[in-house]
Structure formats: C-alpha cells, structure tokens
C-alpha cells in the first residue's frame, strides 16, 4: 500500500481499518512504523488534538506533533483546528495510560509528514508526474496536498496554456488531479505544473475542424480581437464584438485553423449558457506517464516554440 498519498485517502482503505481494529493492531502498526489515518475529534485550548482510533482507543496528538514546518515557516493554529472533523495522517509514537476504559496512544502527524518528505517527496525529480489534491485556492495558484498533508504550489499560469484569472476555473477544492513537479526552490518548496498534461496544440486542435460551431469561454478582449478558449490548452481569436466580456460563454464558428502559426480564426455567433460549455477537459495519455523530460506544445514546422524542459530551472525554455 502506498502510504504517501494526499491526506484523506487512506482513511477508508482495508489496510487502514485493519490497523485501527484494536489496541493490539495499533501496537503492531507502531512497531512497524506504519502511517495511518483517522478523524480528528477535537482540539483543546492547548491545541492538543484527539483522534478516533477505532473501537476502544483514542489518539492524543500534542501541538508539537501536529505539523512538519518548512524552513522559515511559522506555526499557525489552523494546522490543528483546521483538521477537526477531518482525517489526519499519523504515526503511533507510544502508548499512554488508559483513560475512561479506553486505550490511549501518542500519535504524530509531524512524524508521518517527515517520513513522506524523506522517503518520497525529497526523491522526486523535476518532470515526475504525481497525484495531488487541491486544498486551497488563491488568485496566484492552488495549494495542493502532494502526500500526507505536505503541500506544493500549482501556480495559476501553470494550470494551462490558456490564461485564466483564477485557479477555480480549472480546479475545485478537494479535487484530485495529476501534475508534474516543475522545480524545487532553495528552501525545498515544491512547485507543480499541469499545463503539460493538457495536450499539445495539435492534440487539442484534433477535436475541432473548420466549419464547426462550438462553445467556448472568453478569456480576454483586446482592441484587435477577442480570445476564446476552446479547451484548456487551445484558444482562438475572433474579431472585436460589442458587448462581449472576459468570462462570457459564447458560441463560435471556426473559420480557419493554421497549425504553422498556431492560430484559429473564429467568428462569435453569440453568448450562451455556461452549462453549454464543455464541462471537462479532454484527457491525454501523458497524464498516465510517470515522468516527463521534455514537452513541446508547438506543432512541427511552427516558427514559434512553446514548451518545457524539466531540468529544475523554473525559467527553462525549449
């Protein structure tokens, strides 16, 4: 069983339930150093949390065992109170005196996160494709759980080739997605990218043809034209149209497609209901890859080169 998954993934697995079945199985998990998961029941005024460890057992997690802090990071109370009512990963560190007829165990989320960091996250290379879960969305990007409640940032401009105003255009909190490690900064913080998994220009363009009328989302309105997103990694340009604003859902006629210039010329027919726009992005085989060395978005023969080289340099270009 892979223990280093986004927090909330292990809770209902057969292996996790078996480890929480009794005080004896918890002792065995402690001896094996296993990472487990259980819901947090409460946190007292000292920010000591109590976890439900199954029939007849509780976990006690002192505030110092609640989170693994990154270099320079300050402790925030939300690291404890934000987990109340939610699953938390942990390792069993020891057994405490029983209370109220229940076995009690000292547990540490910090120890589980440290194990995840050392055995999994520190070994990731730029270009490795992993599962992660969106936990918090900001204007500049999505914070993603990349294992055991450890976080990485997926910047908004790395979610797709098409520019979007906010990560909520692509992700919802709690959604699990595939992303590639783009680079690790000097503090060890991880930065992710997803646009490489959303297909090349040609792969996306293959879903469309000249003469079609389809739906899309207006991404920007410039003096020279209106950019309409047809797919996360594909947009076309329409002539300026009165009353059309960024964010509008529109129907468009595909006038021409020019792969050598990566251009699609559109004619806006009119606005439409948001529900009419394609709800989910196409899935491409590269999402199932374990590692990417190099990704080229531009079609062969195109003078303009867009792509990514996964060499740990955040500004690397093809």
Provide a descriptive summary of the structure in words.
This protein has 318 residues and is mainly beta. The protein has three domains: 14-118, Nucleic acid-binding proteins (OB fold (Dihydrolipoamide Acetyltransferase, E2P), Beta Barrel), CATH 2.40.50; 125-198, Nucleic acid-binding proteins (OB fold (Dihydrolipoamide Acetyltransferase, E2P)); 201-273, Nucleic acid-binding proteins (OB fold (Dihydrolipoamide Acetyltransferase, E2P), Beta Barrel). Helices cover 11% and strands 38% of the residues. It is built from five helices and 17 strands. It has a five-stranded mixed beta barrel with strand order 1-2-3-5-4. A five-stranded mixed barrel has the order 6-7-8-10-9. The chain has a five-stranded mixed beta barrel with strand order 11-12-13-15-14. The longest helix has 11 residues, at 109-119.
């Amino acid at each position: 069983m892979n223990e280093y998954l986004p927090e909330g993934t292990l809770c209902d697995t057969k292996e996790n339930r078996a480890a929480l079945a009794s005080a004896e199985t918890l002792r065995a998990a402690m001896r094996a150093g296993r990472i487990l998961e259980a819901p947090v029941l409460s946190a007292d005024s000292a920010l000591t949390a109590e976890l439900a460890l199954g029939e007849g057992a509780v976990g006690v997690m002192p505030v110092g065992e609640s989170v693994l802090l990154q270099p320079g990071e300050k402790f925030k109370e939300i690291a404890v109170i934000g987990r109340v009512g939610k699953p938390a990963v942990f390792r069993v560190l020891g057994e405490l005196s029983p209370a109220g007829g229940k076995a009690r165990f000292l547990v540490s989320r910090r120890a589980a996160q440290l194990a995840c960091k050392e055995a999994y996250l520190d070994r990731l290379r730029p270009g490795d494709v992993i599962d992660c879960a969106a936990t918090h969305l900001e204007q500049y990007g999505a914070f993603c759980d990349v294992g055991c409640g450890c976080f990485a940032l997926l910047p908004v401009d790395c979610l797709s080739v098409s520019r979007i105003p906010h990560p909520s255009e692509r992700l919802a909190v709690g959604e699990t997605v595939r992303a590639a490690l783009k680079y690790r900064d000097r503090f060890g913080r991880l930065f992710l990218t997803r646009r490489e998994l959303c297909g090349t220009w040609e792969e996306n363009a293959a879903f469309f043809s000249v003469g079609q009328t389809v739906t899309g989302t207006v991404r920007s309105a410039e003096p020279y034209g209106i950019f309409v997103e047809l797919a996360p990694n594909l947009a076309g340009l329409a002539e300026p149209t009165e009353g059309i604003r960024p964010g509008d859902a529109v129907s468009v006629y595909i006038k021409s497609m020019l792969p050598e210039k990566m251009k699609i010329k559109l004619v806006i027919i009119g606005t439409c209901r948001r529900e009419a726009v394609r709800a989910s992005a196409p899935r491409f085989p590269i999402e199932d890859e374990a590692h990417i060395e190099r990704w080229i978005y531009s079609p062969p023969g195109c003078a303009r080169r867009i792509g990514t080289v996964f060499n740990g340099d955040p500004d690397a270009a093809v």
